Structures are given as structure tokens and as C-alpha cells.
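Our consortium's second objective concerns turning raw sequence data into structural hypotheses that experimental partners can test. To show how far this objective has progressed, the report includes one record in full. It was chosen at random from the queue rather than selected for favorable results. The single chain below, 179 residues long, was entered without modification.
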Amino acid sequence: MTILLILSAVAIPSLLQSFRTYQLNNAAANLSDMLKFTRYEAVRRNRPISFLMQPSGNGWLIGTDSNVNGNIDPTDKQALVNGFVTLVTAGTPPPTAMTASLNVGGLTPTPANPGPLQFDARGAVRVNGNLSANFYVFYVGAAPPANPGDFGFRAVILLPTGATQIWTATAAGPWQRIA
């Protein structure tokens, strides 16, 4: 019995760390997939389609606004980012070494207020109806009361063309592209 307790005490923290890492990766992948789906819908329907984010309890509701009414309706494709993970503000994650790898001057942080973020019929990003040249970043991290830095961060980059990238970093950095 003692051996079993010792093995459990050693294995459980490692298992918990792996599960938390999986949750962060899954939330970033869901966010990236929702952006890709919204872009695909805009191209498929040959008209602008909006991507929306709305606070929902302790998390965020992300979704495709297919009828462009400014709301995520029950019939729209949507996902909830909540529980252990959340979208975090730009000041929390480690310094951006991503800008050098992306060869851009800066990233526009979200979810501060992405405005009506849309994809046009070609799949390009538009904000407030205008073609955007900005690179948008959505940070994903641990939700309070957990310390976000304990488990690292994920970042979903939305390029002006509508393509997405997923990056990862520990609290100390550096950022590395994973997808």
C-alpha cells in the first residue's frame, strides 16, 4: 500500500501538468479552427462573415456570425473557452519574440476590442469594413485563480490574409511556432 501511495504521489502532479497543457493546446486549436471556419464560410457564401467574441460567465463565447446580425445565435457555429483556460490580455504573456519571426513591426492584441472582425469573400481580414494589414494575436492562458505563467501561454495569430498560426511559450519565453 505504501508503494502505491508513493507512486501515486509522484505520478499525479505529472499527469495534472499534462492535462493542463492539453487544455491550453485544445483551447488554442479551437480558437484557430473557429477563425478558419469563419473564413471558409465567407469564401463559400461569397460575402463577408463576422467572427465574434463575447464574455460569457467566467469565459468567452467565440463564434461565426453567419447572418451578420452582430450576435452569436444558437444556430451559429460557436465554442466556449472557459474552465481552466481563458483569453488573456496583452500585458500578461511574455515579451513578443514572435514579431521577429513573423517579420512584422507589431501585433494587434485582442480581445481588447477587435471590432467587427470579418472575412471578406476572398478570405482576407476586414475590420470595420476596411481591409486590414494588421496581425492580430489572441492569447490563451490559465484562468484565475491559477497563475497563468505556471502553465505557459498559447497565442493564435491571425494574419491579414486570413491564415492562422499557433505559438507557445513558457512564462519566461521564448515564443515558438507549433502550428
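The partners drew two points from this record. The chain is about 25% helix and 30% strand. The domain at 16-177 is CATH 3.55.40.10 (minor pseudopilin epsh fold). Both points have been shared with the crystallography group to help prioritize constructs.
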